[in-house]
Amino acid sequence: QVQLVESGGGLVQAGGSLRLSCSASGNIFNLNAMFWYRQAPGKQRELVATITKGGTTVYNDSVKGRFTISRDNAKNTVYLQMSSLKPEDTAVYYCAAQTTLHYWGHGTQVTVSS
C-alpha cells in the first residue's frame, strides 16, 4: 500500500501561481511514475502531468508552458508548480503514483477566480 497526501491548494486570482505537493508513504520501494490529475465539476478526470522515476516529464497540452511537475525522490514527494493560472484550471487536483498498482490521493481543491 502507498499513501498519498496532497497539499497546497487554495483560492488564487487569474494570473497567479500555486504549488501543490504530494507526499508518498508506505510501500514506496517500487515507486515509479507519479502523476497529477484534475477533475473539474461535471467533467471527467484528466491527466495533467507525469514524471517518471528518472525525471522524464509529459504534460497535457492545456498546461504546457504554465505548469511544471518535479519530484524529490529522497523525500518521496512530487510537486506541481502552477503559474499563469486561468479560471478553467479550477478543479480538484489529485496526485497518483504507480508501483505494480495505481494509487490515488484524496485531492486538493484549486480555485482560480477571474
General description of the model:
This protein is mainly β and 114 residues long. It contains no helices and eleven strands. It has strands spanning 2-7, 10-13, 18-26, 34-39, 46-51, 57-59, 67-72, 77-82, 91-98, 102-104, 108-113. Strands 2, 4, 5, 6, 9, 10 and 11 form a seven-stranded mixed β-sheet that branches. The chain has a four-stranded antiparallel β-sheet with strand order 1-3-8-7, with no helix packed on it. A hairpin with a 6-residue loop joins strand 4 and strand 5. The relative contact order is 0.33.
Instruction: Indicate the overall shape.
Output: globular
User: Could you spell the SSE succession in H and E letters?
Assistant: EEEEEEEEEEE
Q: Which structural class do the helices and strands define?
A: mainly beta
Instruction: Summarize the biggest pleated sheet.
Output: 7 strands, mixed
Radius of gyration: 13 Å
Number of strands: 11
Helical fraction: under 10%
Report the sheet-strand fraction.
over 45%
How many helices does DSSP assign? 0
Output mean pLDDT: 95
Low-confidence parts, pLDDT < 50 over ≥5 residues?
none
Distance between the termini: 40 Å
